[in-house]
Fold this protein.
Amino acid sequence: MSFVGWFVADVLALASVSPETATALYPLTWWSHAVLALAFVAWVPYAKPFHMLASFANVVTADEDAGTRLPRVPEDLGPEEIGATDLDSFSWKQLLDQDACTKCGRCSSVCPAKASGRPLDPRDVILDLKSYREAVDAGGETVEIVADGGAASATSGTSSDSSDGRISVIDSSTMDSCMSCMACMDACPVDIEHLTHFTDMNRRLTETGQMDDGVEEAMMNAFQHGNTFGDPERKRPDWTEELDFEVPDAREEAVEYLWYVGDYPSYDDRNQEVAKALATLFERAGVSYGILYEGEQTDGNDVRRVGEEGLYEMLVEDNAAAIADCEYDHIVTTDPHSYNTFKNEYPDFSACEWDAEDVSHYTQVLAELVDRGDLSPRGLDGTVTYHDPCHLGRYNGVFEPPRELVESTGVELVEMPRNRSDSFCCGGGGGGLWLDHEEDTKPSEERLREATEDTAAGNAVDRFVVACPMCVTMYEDGRKTGGYEDDVEVVELTEMLVEATD
Ligand code: SF4
Ligand code: SF4
């Protein structure tokens, strides 16, 4: 039974329209309805309702690993085709991303680069790419997608006309500003994958030699020495000599935990304390563990994010080969950046013999050791706050193990307003550690302000706890430059646990 037809018949009867008149009018109403419906469908791509369709399609086709696992460069691409070369280089998903943007600005409101006054607004980058495509479709002139000294950074309203002095849609400084923190993607209500666009643009800049000097030096160091510091490879395990026990060599004996130490804990003076602390905790817990000594190379997570895919692939092969020569049950990393790429990206390569579930961050392993009673932290007091590193928390959802460890020491843990997946980047990701930015307030300074002013404990927070060596470097710097040296101490979780165990 047709309820609508019944209802319409009743309405027509009430309006005194005879069945004969209604029958005569039927073809007219049917055709006008059909034409109107078809016209609406044809109009949708040029009008606001298109957002609804594009947004829905974008959510349905979203890649849940986007950002944490960057796409590989197809092997058959020549150097002139790598990255964001022209409009044809965008995938269908990237074009859909651009069409799906509702201009809500949520990504911009959480972006630490924008908050620090850097020339980056993630919404404007997406919209500028879309505006450019529309202008070219309408017959406008083509320019580079991204270039050094190109467009004034993402300001919306990109011109495709190079007569206004622009040589590109997006300027390289816009890409240099991004910390790959993924806050924009996490905030986006329609699942736009900003980082796949940014990676392609970074790959183009790298391929054409338009890299920031600091990043270029770090890449050259990684290529020549296997670490971003440019120090000799043989010095990688020097930190072990300062311990009163011998750190086992995983290349010479079978171990349960193969510990990938990473660049910062190996070479950076401040972070060597973190490496020593974690080794001490493994010893105290009596676990079977070992390191690769000079067999390690830099993990490549941030090498990949600044666009150096060729170098990244080389590092994957070298690290995977070094690990393949060892007998181990599980891989554990100090650095959340190593954790992310070992867990989510290395398994994409045939050289890698492990799966995602074979990799843990040290906070997960230590939390298990505390649970099992192999470590018994206690006896600390004071009020602390914990900063979620982007690559551990937002990237990989590891929020609770570090908190359980902090609380196991006896201190009071208070949360900053921006915690867990809403955490605010330290500024070190995406190559940020290797760049110098002109900023009124650094992201690390803003975060320390939040820790010392905005928690429920007011200004009572005496320790700012992190679980990432890069965060240690960024926050030790922010503590000095922001004038927080008398207010709060920056401490790595391993250091706190050494203090709380014996
Ligand atoms: S990844 Fe982070 S820094 Fe980069 S655009 Fe997104 S929010 Fe901004
Ligand atoms: S959050 Fe997503 S939809 Fe909103 S402006 Fe940013 S990219 Fe566009």
The chain has four domains: 3-47, 54-210, 226-367, 375-499. The pocket of iron/sulfur cluster (ligand 1) is lined by residues 110-113, 120, 122, 178-184, 194 (CB under 6 Å).
